[in-house]
Amino acid sequence: MNSSEFRKSAHELVDWMADYMDNVSSYPVKPDIKPGDIKKLLPGNAPEKAENFDSIFSDFKSKIVPGMTHWQHSQFFAYFPTGASGPSVLADMLSSTMGAQCMIWLTSPAAEELEERMMEWLREMLGLPSDFTGVIQDSSSSSTLVSLLTSREVHSQYAVNQRGFDGTEKFRVYTSSQAHSSVDKAVKIAGLGIDNLVKIKVDENFQMDAHALEKAIEQDIAMELVPLCVISTIGTTSSTAVDPIRDIGEICKKYGCWHHIDASYSGAALLLPEMRWMSEGVEMADSFVFNPHKWMLTNFDCSAYFVKDKDALTKTFSILPEYLKTPEDNLVNNYRDWGIPLGRRFRALKLWFVIRSYGVEGLRQIIKEHIEISRWVKDQIENSDEFELLAPVPLNLICFRYRPKGLKDEDKLNQLNTQLLEGLNKTGEILLTQTKLNDKYTIRFVSGNNNTSLEEVKKGWNKIVSHAKSLKV
Known about the structure:
By secondary structure, the protein is of the alpha/beta class. The protein folds into two domains: 1-30 and 69-83 and 360-473, Aspartate Aminotransferase, domain 1 (Alpha-Beta Complex), CATH 3.90.1150.170; 100-345, 3-Layer(aba) Sandwich (Aspartate Aminotransferase, domain 2), CATH 3.40.640. The protein has 15 helices and eleven strands. Helix 5 packs parallel to helix 13 and helix 6 (140-155) packs across helix 12. The radius of gyration is 24 Å and the shape is globular. The termini are far apart.
């Protein structure tokens, strides 16, 4: 493809992209297909000869788009939203065009320095401590693993990296029973052993019980086990429960544990000063992560990871072969030493575009509106005789179930709500997901993508009510 062909095709793609953004809600939110349906449309072997771009783009529109779930659809109320916006998409296009490898300062000086500044901006925007230093990771899952590996090396005085485990470490990791599954995965990958992950019970609001945490730590110390790390959550996946950060921080300080805060989704709400009750005590934490690629209009992937002791982080991950040494090493942040991969994308560019395009005030207003819109759904449920809330609503996730009058059998209620969710999702007009809270099948309704509006949320809620009333009880 020469530059003139690229220019022509690029214009066609951008026109399609703009149309898609305008009309995404005209698609079924979820395709009505079975596993394998898309693969059947694709040739079994790669083409021997080049194909023209018009043919490739045509197949994209006819074979791929109809098989996609549309995360920016106005009736997408599932999981947590994925960030997307025009400025972010355009920045990603520029980054892809340059094809930059941003592993060290020398390979892309502007990328390194822009990332450094963007993390300083985010730190101030969220009201995080000034002694936190930030770096962009690919995901919160990677960030949790980075924290565990760093805490492992700090506690072992970097001996595990040098000689491996010798069987004397006996490390223990603590998190709540509502924590994300990435904690389990990170514990396994870090070589700590899933048997050494202690799940702490939660209270009636699904927040970690700090007293139970301290008791578990004391019991482990009595058995000559070593408390290594506590992973708390600001906004759990199931219910956006907020763990008592200050209490946990004080316990970690008392027993010498690393404290990592996972604020993957809900951390964006800290843009609002009135929501910073969630992070009270964050100054005692060792590391903190949130994802602009969820609720801050920034396309995946972009995970903002902050650490108090950056020397501990870089000492854990630094590898310096001769071919990576540069004269500037002692003057700059070489981010290849701040996480797992050597290679790094130019993610800071889309953050820069988004923050400048909306301004801090604009981003705050969007998040505030999403929270206020969710209050409307909350009010509908609280004023209904046939629906009930199953968790508090600190942000914009509503956890509820359908409970017709007179129906008290929990098994039947679970079956009925399973039927309700699956029936709604099968229509292709709306998408919701589920969780289990206190063994109750729970429907999750989260409104937070770029196309969220009160009008669309009302439409979605009316679909839920209408479908529920059509079910045989």
